[in-house]
């Protein structure tokens, strides 16, 4: 059932992509692993932007798949920084599907990703205050 879905943020989505036949599970629905990977890509883009450099995912938790999407539906991934540590960013991600031939939307996935910022030698580096302020965090 398609319903209006609340979006995590009023910002533009970090990822917008159309589900294709190769993205389905054996039952013909969009594979949860594909949804997880799209959320990780969006969260990683935000982590790199806010952290102003290399950011690697160190954990992924709290996945939920409250809705289903079909081949041809468009997925938009929204992300926000939920917390910061000395060298880490915790980012929540939410996926909203829009039906192929209309405007109806539904929340299909959500999850939390933790990233550590790395320097040129791949060692953890601090999250800069100026980076957080520049991105409204």
UniProtKB/TrEMBL annotation:
Cite the PANTHER family for this sequence: ACYL COENZYME A THIOESTER HYDROLASE, ACYL-COA THIOESTER HYDROLASE YCIA
The entry sums up its family as follows: Belongs to the acyl coenzyme A hydrolase family.
Q: Which residues form the signal peptide?
A: none
Name the record gives this protein = Acyl-CoA thioesterase
Write down a Pfam family by its short name. 4HBT
Q: InterPro entries from the xrefs? A: Cytosol_ACT, HOTDOG_ACOT, HotDog_dom_sf, Thioestr_dom
Q: Which organism is it from?
A: Tsuneonella deserti
* Key words of the record: Hydrolase
Name all HotDog ACOT-type domain ranges: 9-121
- The highest taxon in the source lineage is Bacteria
